[in-house]
Write a structure and sequence with these properties.
318 residues, alpha/beta, 7-stranded mixed β-sheet, 5-stranded mixed β-sheet, 12 helices, 20% strand, globular
């Protein structure tokens, strides 16, 4: 009798501090700022390794953005971190005017995104942050699928000039990729080939999409899974191929169905390649208190939720 190897689990936020330390050790002229949450974001790891490169501003997110803008204008590569409900929630105007409009080299790192924050409840669960950030001209928006992709996204941001928003998560989720994975800003990754329908997912819903694809394969349904980690700019070539070759699209994200990945994909399809589409996401409502697994179930952000959406879109395709 054999047993399956245990699935490695890690929170995407676990990559933040160690990656900053690696980048600083490699000679990147970076500084990082935190707004009173460094133990949760992991930014304090840089503070211990390179105290001259790390600043905490207290619970003052607007000040965080102002300082980040000033440091970037002085030539630094700047990482500014907080929770997604606070960044952009408390400082959208400062981000718009001080970071996005002048296209400064600031990497906005938002931890604890989505309902998987869990027991902290609705006030702590950002389900509209991606909609806010994708609305800003000059802003790139990234939601990595696992801790490996998160490290690569944080690293890619250091070597790509201009503002970018990267969303991290709190729970320990399955690690999908190994070190052979190559993340590129603006490029989707074909996580699984398929010809009947495409699931376009980001964040922890990539794992759910792959699980759903396995279950549907047993029913004879061939599901393509696209990890669309970069929501802005979208990988138009990957979407065009998916629409032409599978003829049906499902989006899956830990975010409101209004804005975010689903909204971006729907707009692109409507303008360029109309095909039947369904969305898996939070249905125009706020979160609530519960364990993160309970909340994912509650909002249908699961493999079963993706499976049901695939069945609906295939019925429309027929």
């Amino acid at each position: 009798m054999t047993t399956a190897a245990p699935v490695r689990r890690a929170a995407t936020r676990e990559a933040y501090g160690p990656t900053l330390v690696k980048l600083a050790d490699a000679g990147v002229d970076l500084v990082a700022l935190d707004a009173d949450l460094a133990a949760s974001t992991g930014g304090n790891k840089l503070g211990r390794a390179h105290p001259d490169r790390w600043y905490t501003v207290g619970a003052a997110e607007a000040n965080l953005i102002g300082m980040a803008a000033g440091l970037a204008a002085a030539g630094k590569v700047v990482y500014a971190a907080s929770f997604a409900v606070f960044l952009p929630g408390h400082c959208f105007d400062q981000i718009r005017v001080s970071i996005a409009q002048p296209q400064l080299n600031v990497k906005l790192i938002a931890s604890h995104g989505g309902v998987s924050v869990g027991e902290d409840g609705a006030s702590a669960q950002a389900v509209e942050d991606l909609a806010l950030m994708t609305s800003l001209a000059n802003m790139r928006v990234v939601v990595p699928a696992d801790v490996v992709e998160m490290e690569q996204a944080l690293t890619a941001a250091a070597y790509s000039d201009g503002p970018i928003y990267i969303r991290m998560g709190r729970p320990k989720i399955p690690v999908i990729y190994d070190e052979s994975h190559e993340f590129r800003i603006g490029q989707a990754h074909l996580a699984r080939p398929g010809g009947d329908v495409t699931v376009v997912a980001c964040g922890l819903l990539v794992g759910a999409a792959l699980e759903a694809a396995d279950a549907l394969a047993a029913e004879g349904v061939s599901v393509r899974v696209l990890n669309m980690a970069t929501i802005k700019p979208l990988d138009a070539a990957a979407l065009a191929a998916a629409a032409a070759e599978t003829g049906a699209i499902v989006t899956a994200e830990e975010h409101s169905v209004i804005g975010g990945l689903g909204g971006a994909v729907a707009r692109w399809l409507a303008l360029n390649a109309p095909v039947p589409m369904e969305q898996v996401g939070v249905q125009d409502r706020y979160g609530e208190s519960g364990t993160w697994t309970q909340l994912l179930e509650r909002h249908g952000l699961t493999a079963q939720g993706v499976t049901e959406a695939v069945r609906r879109v295939l019925a429309r395709k027929a």
